[in-house]
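Worked Example 4.2. Consider the chain below.
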Amino acid sequence: MERRKIRDAADAQECLAAAATASQPPTEWARANGVDARSLNCWRLGPPKRAPREIQLVELVPTPTPAPVTPPSRYLVHVGEFSIEVDASFDPQILGTLLRVVAEC
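Applying the procedure from the previous section yields the following structure tokens:
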């Protein structure tokens, strides 16, 4: 037999009063009268402390996994006692200019 939950505070007071006057433990009284014993016990301990809140639905959207970050490539050019360091996105014309300046030193 499916047992019903306690509906509200008035229902809880009626059931708890009836269970208190019965000659059996409240859990047995609840089972015999079609009441969910856990629901009755919760009300025996005290009324619910939280008021029901409005339900909000939130859509969960997976975010794309970012591409792994690779450290930039660095190149070190030695000309005599001078050094020039460039990364992979260097401008060859600027590098040529720098090398000519270094060669003239």
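The CA atoms of residues 75 and 90 lie 10 Å apart. The beta strands are 74-79, 82-87. Compare this with Example 4.1 before moving on.
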